[in-house]
Amino acid sequence: MCGKEKDTKCPLPCNRKRKCGHPCGNWCGDDCEIGECKPCSVMITDKITKARSDAAKELDELTKRLKNTKRQGGDVFKIENIDPVGPESWIFNDIKNQTEKYVKDRHQQFPHVSKVEKIINLEREKKFAEAKTKLIGDPSEITKKFHGTSEEGLKNIPKDGFRLPNHYNGMYGNGVYFATDSTKSLLYNRGTNRLLICDVLLGKTWRVDRSDKTLDFNKVHGKGYDSVFAPATKKPTARQQVYNDEFIVYNPDQAIAKYIVHFVLKGNKAQ
Fold first, then answer.
1. Hey, how many other C-beta atoms are within 10 angstroms of the C-beta on 200?
2. How does pLDDT run across 91-107, given as a tens digit for each residue?
3. Which of 79, 119, 205, 219 is buried most, with the most CB atoms less than 10 Å from its CB?
4. How many other β-carbons are positioned within 10 Å of the β-carbon of residue 132?
């Protein structure tokens, strides 16, 4: 290293690059991935600042749209069927593919999509936009996740939104739970043949590797996070019995139901 003895640290800055492509910034001989990349940090901060500004504008526009729709006697909530061969057939195909592709063999029953309904709810969209403005993390990053629920939930959630459980705390506390795999959410649909696909604001996510039923909004937010990610484990234990990735938000407004997926369960995967 720079002609110095092996156990002597080189006094010159490193001229290599990090994996992100930015200059290392550390001393010669040090691991380039140690420490914060300052250019990346600036870029992320600028991106989040712009996303928050955009979220505030979106909230203002939705507030005006909601007010005008009510004044004109229009629908602030409705559910529309998506024609699989109509103008929005691409949405139907996307939802069908997501539902039928993201499955786990261990669940042994697989959904075959028969119908997709689109949920339009201006009141919930406004709440979702408000949640964007309060995130610690990036409000521009929205992910689609599955949520399984009862017949009552399928009736109430599209219209009134999610709510925190009153009595029961799951493995990761008092939050609203979502999954990447449709077959995971099927375990909670309580006999119905429908699932919800939701837009979820995960923001800054806290990865946890063991169950903690004491988690709630104040505890998670106090740690500097917007949500919790519990990754699937290959060898579940008494403290971590998660066979599928789970995502939990503790502010119900960080999720909005966008689609109702109707399906038929079969013993084989859809082709």
1. 24
2. 999 999 999 999 887 76
3. 119
4. 22
Domain containing 201 equals: 77-266
CA 44, 140, 230: angle at the middle one, nearest 5? 85
Which residues in the chain come in under a pLDDT of 70?
1-9, 107, 168, 235-241, 270-271
Bridge partners (DSSP) listed for residue 118: 80, 259
Calculated CA dihedral for residues 37, 40, 44, 50, nearest 10 degrees: 140
Strands 227-230 and 205-207: parallel
- Cα distance from N-terminal residue to C-terminal residue, the chain: 57
Who contacts 27 (Cβ-Cβ below 8 Å, separation ≥6)?
9, 10, 11, 12, 13, 14
Domain presence at residue 16: no
Q: Is residue 43 part of a domain?
A: no
pLDDT of residue 185: 93
> Closest Cα to residue 16, out of 5, 25, 3?
25
Nearest partner of 181 among 105, 70, 254, 116, judged by Cα: 105
Domain count, the chain: 1
List the CATH number of the domain containing 161: 3.90.228.10
Question: Do the domain assignments include residue 259?
Answer: yes
Q: Is residue 50 part of a domain?
A: no
Question: Whose structure tokens read 């408000």?
Answer: 130
Which residue is associated with the tokens 């505890």? 219
